[in-house]
Write a structure and sequence with these properties.
By secondary structure, the protein is of the alpha/beta class. It contains nine helices and nine strands. 37% of the residues lie in helices and 20% in strands.
Length: 291
Amino acid sequence: MKIAIIIASIGRPRNVANLLDHLGRQTLAPSEVVISSVASSDVPQIGSGVPAPKVVLGPKGLPAQRNTGLDALDGAPDLVAFFDDDYLPSRYCLEHMAALFARHPALVGANGRLLADGIHGSGISDAEAASLIADYDADPAPDLEIKKRLTGLYGCNMAYRYSAIGATRFDERLKLYGWQEDIDFAAQLRAHGFLAKTDAFAGVHQGVKGARTSGLRLGYSQVVNPVYLARKGTMEWLFALELMSRNVLANHLRLLRPEPWIDRAGRAKGNWIGFKDMLLGRIEPERIEFL
């Protein structure tokens, strides 16, 4: 089974180099690796990995960069995996991913097991991530069962059947960091089969904080993007309202004692700009670029 890897990255060449190193250790080598960036300075010195990564440059923004990566694929792989630049896979990740999709013909997209997710804290160091992966790889027997059916996927480690993607692309109105672009994209593929959470393949999401969207812009997207996607029909209204409320509440409750790695004041301000635009009937996620 041929598996292509797409890595959208900006401003993190060291993280990309680390991910490429882990991809070079896979027991099933990827059929191709595409790094989609904005400038050549975003990409590390490319070594003699197998296969040699293809670097493509294009418009800035996670949805746009993933689309650039999709359009740059040379062949027709069986699977396409989107890995964040701060995601580090087990060396058995692709082998077990292939086994999972072979076992479940109706499966069109899947999230694997996260051994740890640094997005919920200050981040996970290279050493800690390497230790977690080494412990997992010491006993790599895969669990190929479906743990849970999903309505959307988490973007840091999502894999899809290439045949199901077809002409579907990420919504480029969701600018910069995207914010829920993964849910939107996955929802469009449910017509071809089901999405699932699985423990078959695994890795660590380090949750690196550098080169992220500003707090103000992210706060705006936390309000506007869920409403935009609910109106579009790729996110259920109840989930959109829960998602928005949870993030807005967290931003305001933690204003007085914010986490050092989160700009709660900026996010809260962005939330209120988003609410103002909603009252004015302006549901335009692309306005994030002008804040």
